[in-house]
Amino acid sequence: MRKLRLSRLDSVRRWGYVAVLALLLCTLCRTPVGVQALSALTTGSSRMAVPPTVPLVVQVGDRQRAVQVPPGTVADALAWSRIVVGPLDLVDPGLGTLVEVDMHIRIVTRERSVSETLAPVPYDVVWEGDPTLPIDRQALRAPGRAGSTVQRNLHEHHDGQAMPNLQRTESWLTEAPQPRRIAYGRLIVRRVYESPAGDTVAYWRKVRMWTTSYSAARAGTPTDAPWYGYTFSGEPMRNGVVAANLDVLPLGTRVFVEGYGEGEVLDTGGGLGPRDLDLGYADEDYRSWARWSDVYLLWPPPPADEIVWILPPTLADR
């Protein structure tokens, strides 16, 4: 009885081995490698066919690497060689190119960076005439506010080296500047000045000016010059002739200066600033002047288009 049971067990084992072997043979026959292996087994050969590979060189930056890869595209070759290509990197030849023997694949690592700076935008100063404000008076209407711009710089590096020719700069206004608005007086009123010496004059404007004095002999003109002793207007030099900057006081402007008296702008000079006034004398009556004085512009005023409404500060030229 015991011998019979052992023989049945051996029979089951044999049939199990046969089934496993049959399944293995079916699996091998379905693949090329399996066919080759089966062929090698049936023919008694110990060598199996190996798929062909392509030798090539991959260069990343200044480093080169020789690899053997199966036939395919550049993308397949890099994947086979476990070389990762970034989304911005440049590959030459392109990823879809079929690999060839001894091909040289060049990979340029490309990086981009962005920097931003905030820059102020200065505001303008706007002057507005106000007919209700007395002349030489000013009033601030709006203080003004600076604006701002953003400047964005885009940098690019290839293999760690900056590429100046690929740098781009763009800017835009983030906040517009608000102008500073200043009102200046355009109201002219007839006024009267009584000097300590008893002089009474009607005037429309009082200007603080640096007053000096000159005469024909002290004007720097050679005595043999045809124009010696004559003013810019052609009038001969004398008491009562004054020289001024004609951009501020036009020819014919009548003035009064305490201690000098009345004068008329009939002369000018290249060195006269907007707040300079040169008091003329005859050579025999010359008096030396060099001080700040109140200069009264006598009534009536000139036409509005001849008036310098905004004068420079008192010490602008000193």
Explain what this protein looks like in three dimensions.
The chain is mostly beta strands and 318 residues long. It has 4 domains: 2-43; 54-108, Ubiquitin-like (UB roll) (Roll), CATH 3.10.20.90; 115-186, Resuscitation-promoting factor rpfb (Resuscitation-promoting factor rpfb fold), CATH 2.20.230.10; 189-306, Barwin-like endoglucanases, CATH 2.40.40.10. It has 3 helices and 18 strands. The strands form 4 sheets. It has a 6-stranded mixed barrel with strand order 13-17-14-16-15-18. A hairpin with a 5-residue loop joins strand 12 and strand 13 (200-215). Helix 1 crosses helix 2 (32-43).
How would you sum up this structure in a few lines?
The protein has helices at 2-29, 32-43, 74-80, and strands at residues 54-60, 63-69, 90-92, 103-108, 110-121, 125-134, 138-142, 147-158, 161-162, 168-175, 180-187, 191-194, 200-215, 241-244, 254-257, 261-267, 276-281, 290-298. The longest helix has 28 residues, at 2-29.
Helix content: 10-25%
Query: What number of domains?
Result: 4
Q: How would you classify the helix and strand content by structural class? A: mainly beta
| Unreliable parts | 1-6, 28-46
Strand % is 35-45%
CATH class of the largest domain: Mainly Beta
List the helices and strands and how they pair.
Layout: H1 2-29, H2 32-43, E1 54-60, E2 63-69, H3 74-80, E3 90-92, E4 103-108, E5 110-121, E6 125-134, E7 138-142, E8 147-158, E9 161-162, E10 168-175, E11 180-187, E12 191-194, E13 200-215, E14 241-244, E15 254-257, E16 261-267, E17 276-281, E18 290-298
Parallel strand pairs: 1-4, 6-11, 13-17, 14-16
Antiparallel strand pairs: 1-2, 3-4, 5-8, 7-11, 8-9, 8-10, 12-13, 13-18, 14-17, 15-16, 15-18
